[in-house]
Specification:
Length: 246
């Protein structure tokens, strides 16, 4: 089963030397997972100061600088892995340096039919990679009903194919509901595992897009077309490229 490991930590908690050591250690873990056939993709993200968030309300796009929510720990990177079960995913999360200073949230990936082939290793002439983090308002979707949700999923799949035709698509998927989240921390050498997400917020991460875009504005334009932006928030973060994780 596919899992996404979301590495959260306070950005100010890392010195440059510690961040470099973290990326080296994380890369080594990814290479080991790749040799075992359990690695799909991973990358750190640029700092939250470079983030922008998109909401679409009454037909107009509302763009704000910064992440969708102010939290003590910020998303610093992601890992996509394929392992047999949650216990195996937790064991990998516990090895990541981010678990020492922050939290690694483990989320099972929801298989959505009709998505294009993932293109993690294919170069693109469009531009750098950006991650679109789709934060959902579960209460709002519950009020809209299952028909609206299914229509939004179909619209989201159609958008992936448009992006794919333009050479922008890398990967996309919804995540299983937040009730399935598990948070992993290492404190004083001990493993702490708790049910639920790393932070309690009204809007929870419901899925992601990984795309190529010419620049931030181009990525924001794609984010504004995602149906989730009409109900929740889409946060746009540029991917920090590490050749060893290519």
């Amino acid at each position: 089963m596919k899992y996404m490991l979301l590495a959260y930590s306070p950005e100010q908690a890392w010195t440059q030397a510690e961040w470099t050591a973290c990326t080296i250690a994380s890369t080594r873990i990814c290479q080991e997972l790749q040799a075992e056939g359990r690695f799909i993709a991973a990358a750190p993200l640029h700092p939250v100061a470079s983030a922008a968030s998109v909401r679409v309300r009454q037909g107009g796009a509302l763009i704000t600088t910064g992440p969708f929510a102010e939290t003590t720990e910020q998303l610093g990177g992601f890992f996509l892995i394929e392992v047999p079960d949650l216990d195996a995913a937790i064991a990998i999360a516990a090895r990541l340096p981010s678990a020492q200073k922050g939290t690694v949230e483990v989320r099972p990936v929801f298989r959505l039919d009709g998505l294009p082939t993932e293109r993690f290793s294919e170069p693109s002439a469009v531009g750098p990679r950006y991650m679109l983090l789709c934060y959902d308002d579960a209460q709002a979707w519950n009020e809209l009903g299952p028909a609206a949700l299914h229509a939004a999923q179909a619209e989201a799949v159609a958008l992936t194919h448009e992006l794919d035709a333009r050479g922008q698509y890398v990967s996309a998927s919804p995540l299983h509901p937040i009730a399935t989240a598990t948070s992993v921390r290492i404190r004083q050498g001990g493993l702490l595992v708790s049910d639920g997400p790393f932070a309690e917020t009204r809007e929870f991460l419901g899925g992601y897009y990984l795309i190529h875009a010419r620049d931030l504005n181009d990525a924001l334009a794609a984010a504004a077309r995602h149906p989730g932006a009409r109900v929740g928030t889409v946060e746009v973060r540029r991917v920090f490229e590490l050749p060893a994780l290519g």
